[in-house]
């Protein structure tokens, strides 16, 4: 198990396993595990931060206004598909084709 302070990951650029820029970590999702929290996935991409706006009617309207709800290049990366052993340089452990897009997130669907 790797323990990393979240402030060392938030905002970091994520590279593909081929070294190309995927986007920046905008959100980190975690679940409670006893007294601890365990990271379940990372939300990456220029507009991933807007994803959390979709929880409100105003947020959905803003996303629709800027056409961000169906934007390509927004990724949900499972915890086990991101190498964070060097928090300054997180890297995908899989091809980008294996990632779920943010447009598939339940709270972004119409």
Fold and architecture overview:
With 110 residues, the protein is mainly beta. The chain contains one helix and seven strands, in the order βββαββββ. The longest helix is centred in the middle third of the chain and has 9 residues, at 57-65. It starts with 12 loop residues before the first strand and ends in a 9-residue tail after the last strand. It comes from Mesorhizobium ciceri. This is PRC-barrel domain-containing protein.
Sum this structure up briefly.
This protein has one helix at residues 57-65; strands at 13-15, 21-33, 36-44, 75-78, 82-83, 91-92, 100-101. With 110 residues, the chain is mainly beta.
Name the descriptors.
mainly beta, five-stranded antiparallel sheet, 1 helix, two-stranded antiparallel ribbon, disordered C terminus, 110 residues, 8% helix, globular
Count helical runs. Answer: 1
Q: Please, what is the average pLDDT?
A: 77
- Separation, N- and C-terminal Cα atoms: 37 Å
- Which structural class do you get from the secondary structure elements? mainly beta
Q: Could you name the ranges where pLDDT drops below 50 across 5 or more consecutive residues?
A: 103-110
The largest sheet is:
5 strands, antiparallel
- Alpha-carbon Rg, integer: 14 Å
Query: What is the spatial order of strands in the main beta sheet?
Result: 1-2-3-4-7
User: Beta-sheet strand percentage?
Assistant: 25-35%
Describe the global form.
globular
Helix content: under 10%
Number of DSSP-assigned strands: 7
Strand and helix order: EEEHEEEE
């Amino acid at each position: 198990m790797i323990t990393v302070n979240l402030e060392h990951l938030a905002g970091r650029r994520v590279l593909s396993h081929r070294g190309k820029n995927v986007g920046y970590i905008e959100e980190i999702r975690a679940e409670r595990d006893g007294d601890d929290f365990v990271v379940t996935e990372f939300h990456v991409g220029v507009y991933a931060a807007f994803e959390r706006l979709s929880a409100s009617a105003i947020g959905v309207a803003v996303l629709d206004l800027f056409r961000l709800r169906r934007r390509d290049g927004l990724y949900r990366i499972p915890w086990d598909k991101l190498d964070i052993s060097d928090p300054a340089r997180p890297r995908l452990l899989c091809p980008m084709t294996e990632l779920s897009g943010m447009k598939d997130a339940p709270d972004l669907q119409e």
